[in-house]
Amino acid sequence: MYETSNMNKSERTHQFILMDFEFTTIYRTSIVLISGAISNSSYHFKTVKLEGKPLLLSVNQNVRQLNNQEIRKAISVINLYLKLELQVALLKQLHNGLSTSTNNLNAEFIRRYLAYNNKITIIVLWNGSTDMDILNRLQINNYNLLNMTCFDISNNQHFYIQLITMRNTKVIYEYSLGPYNKQGRMLSLVETHKIICSKQHKGMYPHDPCYDLELTKCIFNKMVKQFQYKNLVKHF
């Protein structure tokens, strides 16, 4: 269904599914889900772009597509409050979603993907607080969640990649990246990837969910190699 080759079936009992969403907010608490991406952590699986009409995820209300007034509001918010690079990326994805015939930006498709392989599934996110909120509003809330971040633990510009189980917000693994000269205590996905990997991921642009997911997959697999799969799955 999603595999790109006839890989040998692994004896592994767990699968790690990476996800990323692109979004904005309107009316303070309503999330506009614009696009996303999903992929098994294995390099045998291609990243799948989640596209379709943008969705309005309101607190305690049913998920639905935006009406024309809400689309105009979302465009206004993007233009007013976001940096230019993010504006361009989100407006491009919003336009693509409104014109595409693809329709997999929905909870049903995501659930089917997560159920594939019939293994214990862990969702992996990068700085995923809002992504977790999106999953909850889509009523995809019965999976273990693993969050990755890169943080200056001691406030001395020495950064660590952290793997955090969101069930109990426990740091289960830390990997030292070393010193990095930056104001603030958190590195972005692009900054973290640049330090840990020299590979150039071409053909995509920052804030495209497929691009972000490729970087996340690269970082995650390096962390699994360091931490070892057998140690990671003990926490799930």
TrEMBL record:
This is Uncharacterized protein. It comes from Acyrthosiphon pisum (Pea aphid). The lineage of its organism: Eukaryota, Metazoa, Ecdysozoa, Arthropoda, Hexapoda.
